[in-house]
């Protein structure tokens, strides 16, 4: 059974050259899987502000947002959650990844390896879209 209302959340595809920053999730949904840094938007917080905050809290990395990638429904019946995920592309500015908040690992990985690392096809799709965005800008 799902919570009564969808939960607004953000995700950040942070790119450093040909690498993407991924976190290994420490909590459901998708616990133990590689994913994007992100999380819930706090009351009164702007979406872009939430994206940069979540990136810092989960990885210690600073980045600049370069554009909206997509809005994705993350429906996870096993966890009882429906997230509305607002995914942004970002360029790394500084900092080396250190797992924080609900991430148990944080690391840059070559974009070319996401098919092997990331289990959820929507995450793979938005990473690929972000890589195309940054290649053309």
From TrEMBL:
Which regions span the lipid bilayer? none
**Matching Gene3D superfamilies:** Nucleoside Triphosphate Pyrophosphohydrolase
Query: A Gene Ontology molecular-function term?
Result: hydrolase activity
Q: Which UniProt keywords apply?
A: Hydrolase
Q: Which cofactor does it need?
A: Mg(2+)
Stretches assigned to the Nudix hydrolase domain: 5-131
Provide the family line.
Answer: Belongs to the Nudix hydrolase family.
This chain belongs to the protein called: NUDIX hydrolase
Q: What is the lineage of its organism?
A: Bacteria, Pseudomonadati, Pseudomonadota, Alphaproteobacteria, Caulobacterales
